[in-house]
Design a protein that fits this description.
Elements lengths: L1 E7 L2 E7 L5 H21 L7 H8 L1 E3 L2 H16 L9 H6 L6 H5 L6 H4 L11 E4 L2 E4 L8 H16 L5 E5 L2 E5 L7 E5 L6 E5 L2 E7 L4 E4 L2 E4 L2 E2 L4 E2 L4 E8 L2 H14 L1 H11 L3 E5 L4 E4 L4
Antiparallel strand pairs: 1-2, 2-6, 3-5, 4-5, 6-7, 7-10, 8-9, 10-15, 11-12, 13-14, 15-16, 16-17
Helix pairs in contact: 1-7, 7-8, 8-9
Length: 294
């Protein structure tokens, strides 16, 4: 098993290829790492030179193919989740104190307390229009593509590695696989209140959303990054964490966040109806399987 690790998109990335050492494997790892860095430079809201930052600053842009694709994916996700997944939570994240990369947010004892209480900053659900390659935002609307951009990068990277052999791309616990390793499945550890649970992933992707993953202090309160678009505030869901298996990392990211915001009982019912293997960890310390997860 060949392995390559690096840091990108605010998290640790691990690439695996179930092949003997070779120049092809080294080339594949370099290509996949370069793709992560390339997409981060385009899609990060923390890079003022990124395409996304230019769109947010100017309200309009003739977008390149990747920004256009991810915004289209995000808007389609907003539609089919009834607004629970919403890329227009940028101002709500800033208002909650997540106004810079998480490493910098976490290093502050009191993160942007004045911003956290500023009135009128938590607007969500605003208009985003696409005509050809042109993206236009309503006045005051800015978008955040954090999780879905990471899922998009994972899918792109595993696509680059797949022709070389069985492969896995893991971006901070959100991952996708291609091909069957010698072991028969890819063993993936998922944290539960009673200890790690190992899932065998034969294809597709896995993503986790949780209020315990990115937390900080702002305005004297503990905040997290999962904004409920209905309130413009960090969600008060009775779930701590949701892990979902889906055909792609993009889809797993969307479903994990949408089910988290739905709450335990609605999330379990929705996962069952969709047939989406799901592990729910509740805020009171229980683990619940849904969607056919064995």
């Amino acid at each position: 098993m060949e392995r390559h690790a690096f840091h990108a998109m605010g998290t640790d990335i691990e690439l695996l290829l179930d092949v003997p050492p070779s120049l092809d494997a080294a080339w594949g790892f370099d290509s996949a790492e370069s793709e992560f860095h390339r997409l981060e430079a385009l899609l990060s809201r923390f890079n003022p030179a990124s395409e996304l930052s230019r769109l947010n600053a100017e309200g309009t842009i003739e977008a390149g193919p990747d920004l256009l694709a991810v915004v289209e994916l995000a808007l389609a996700a907003r539609e089919r989740t009834g607004g629970r997944f919403d890329p227009t939570v940028h101002e709500a994240l800033v208002a909650a104190g997540y106004d810079r990369s998480f490493e910098l947010v976490a290093s502050r004892a009191e993160a942007a307390g004045a911003v956290a209480t500023a009135p009128g900053r938590a607007k969500t659900g605003g208009g985003v229009r696409i005509a050809g390659a042109r993206i236009d935002l309503d006045p005051g609307v800015r978008i955040d593509l954090g999780g879905i951009a990471k899922g998009y990068a994972v899918d792109r990277a595993v696509g680059l590695l797949a022709p070389l052999g069985p492969s896995l791309v893991n971006a901070g616990g959100d991952l996708a696989v291609s091909g069957i390793p010698d072991a028969g499945v890819w063993p993936v550890g998922v944290e539960t209140p009673s200890g790690p649970l190992t899932l065998g992933l034969g294809h597709g992707a896995l993503a986790t959303s949780g209020s315990d993953r990115r937390r900080w202090r702002a305005g004297g309160e503990t905040r997290h990054h999962l904004i409920d678009p209905r309130t413009g505030e960090p969600s008060d869901s009775d779930l701590l964490r949701v892990t979902v298996a889906a055909p792609t990392a993009v889809e797993a990211e969307v479903l994990a966040k949408a089910l988290f915001l739905a709450g335990e009982h609605a999330a379990a019912a929705e996962a069952d109806a969709l047939g989406v293997p799901t592990l729910l960890v509740t805020a009171d310390g229980r683990a619940r399987k849904a969607g056919g997860l064995a």
